Amino acid sequence: MMINTKQEYDVLIVGGGNAALCAAIAARRNGATVLILESAPKFYRGGNTRHTRNMRCAHDAATATLSGPYLEDEFFDDLLRVTGGNTDETLAKMMIAESKDMLNWIVQQGVRFQPSLGGTLSLGRTNSFFLGGGRAMLNALYRTAEHLGVDVVYDAEVVDLDFEGPRFRSATVSREGKTQRISAKALVAAAGGFEANIEWLKEGWGEAAENFLIRGTPYNRGVLLKALLRAGARQIGDTTQCHAVAIDARAPKFDGGIITRLDCVVFGIVVNKNAERFYDEGEDVWPKRYAIWGRLVAAQPDQIAYIIFDAASLELFMPSLYPPVKAATIEELAQKLGLDDEALAKTLADFNAAVRPGTFDPTILDDCSTEGIEPKKSHWARRIQKAPFYAYPVRPGITFTYLGVRVDEKARIVMDDGRTAENAFAAGEIMAGNVLGQGYAAGIGMTIGSVFGRIAGREAAFAMSADETRPSRPLETA
Ligand SMILES: Cc1cc2nc3c(=O)[nH]c(=O)nc-3n(C[C@H](O)[C@H](O)[C@H](O)COP(=O)(O)OP(=O)(O)OC[C@H]3O[C@@H](n4cnc5c(N)ncnc54)[C@H](O)[C@@H]3O)c2cc1C
Q1: Residue 52, SS3 per DSSP
Q2: Strands 167-175 and 178-189
Q3: Among 18, 37, 48, 102, which residue has the most ligand 1 atoms within 8 Å of its CB, making it the best to mutate?
Q4: Which residue, by CA, sits nearest to atom 27 of ligand 1?
């Protein structure tokens, strides 16, 4: 089926995740006709948003689902800390201020929240959890968008864009083996990052990228991002910046989602394929450290590592999809993992000998540490000695990339020559690098998509063609 090109839409939205849907709803509520083009088939619609659980928004007081206040200043301080100051302060502050209203707005669009569950990185005060997870959240947004009259076409990949200077003209869409041109008065680019494009990842990571697992959708290949850069949009960020965690090496190449993540590093030791430790497993509380382990494993030979622990720790963390590898002795465990058994036994003996007595407490930065060993384990260091022994093999799991297009406070794309695009906007992963120069704090991906998506949709609705007058006030209700 060809897309109906007789009707020229006011706003063309490329992508089908949170950013796209927030933009579509906001544009439609501001009176625009809206078409969404989503490259995935309907079942897989919604990209990485399908896998999410929560969103980080500022709020002045506790709510029915949030355990306490999270003020704008604290949110900003958290962002500064995780990015090491590598953020656009103006955009970040604007996003955080706008995030306050997002808690109400997104509920008005049909999304429901629930209190956080245990084992979710202790985010009950700062992050709002979606009732039923990301897929339920997305389904609610699609329902609302369709109810408002937004048209959605699946299996429709935008492969190219036509710009005249800073003005968007049309998009080339590939569908069922044919290409078509779709013109619209404004464009919202919300097609995610390029994390599923291994060749592009290789430009920054080299051959190591072949061993990366992609935690989310195989459809975020950066095709639209490339088209925007070709059309003259200004790039922000570099190829290696991304969110990456250590996930079970047995996970599928794509779309393994949240259940392949492993949260037991702090309870054991982590060794590489030479059975050598390479980083302080107990450096800080896990919510502050989980997002560094993807990079750490990426730097190891063959991009593989093994978390080793014993029976004393088995029930201290949330179980993941696959059971751990289990063995009666360390030597047997090494054989099952394909590691040199003598080397692993020595690493373990050295570690055990370096453990100093302390009071083990996984809820605080306790005083259980090692002495006289490199790398040190700063907290939660206990001898690994109680059979059976366990291991999880881990690989870098790429969540999403940060290289994207530069935007301004109205989510307008900035062109390489410094001009601002007249009618082209971006939201979500495709512009995440404006806020996230590096690092990550849980829940910010959805904040970026929701806030910039809503702004992009609203602004796109007002980006009339040159000969039309621009309404002076937003019309949005609900
Ligand atoms: C396992 C996992 C768990 C996560 N958990 C959280 C969480 O709890 N909280 C949080 O804030 N963030 C989380 N994230 C990050 C979060 O998913 C993203 O930041 C967010 O969903 C991005 O939204 P988006 O709309 O920009 O992109 P996506 O939701 O990925 O949507 C992009 C869409 O664009 C489509 N597309 C791509 N290219 C084209 C094209 N050329 N033409 C047409 N369509 C195209 C894709 O099919 C997809 O539907 C998680 C990510 C993963 C992988």
Answers
A1: coil
A2: antiparallel
A3: 48
A4: 192
Contacts 24+ apart (CB under 8 A), 327-330: 327/388, 327/389, 327/390, 328/387, 328/388, 328/389, 329/387, 329/389, 330/389
| Domain 9-240+402-462 in this protein, CATH class | alpha beta
Q: What pLDDT, in 10s, does the model give residues 415-466?
A: 999 999 999 999 999 999 999 998 888 899 999 999 999 999 999 999 854 4
Angle at 454 between CA 452 and CA 455, to 5 degrees: 65
Binding-site residues, ligand 1, Cβ < 6 A: 14-20, 37-40, 45-49, 51-55, 157-158, 190-192, 215-217, 219-220, 223-224, 257-258, 399-400, 428-429, 443-446, 449
CATH number belonging to domain 243-397: 3.90.700.10
pLDDT, tens only, 136-174? 999 999 999 999 999 999 999 999 999 999 999 999 999
pLDDT tens per residue, range 173-205: 999 999 999 999 999 999 999 999 999 999 999
Out of 52, 75, 180, mutate this one to test ligand 1's pocket (max ligand atoms within 8 Å of CB): namely 52
Atom of ligand 1 nearest to the CA of 16: 49
Gap from CA of 222 to ligand 1 centroid (Å): 12
Identical fold, 9-240+402-462 and 243-397: no
Q: What are the extents of the domains in the chain?
A: 9-240+402-462, 243-397
Q: Is the pLDDT of residue 477 over 60?
A: no
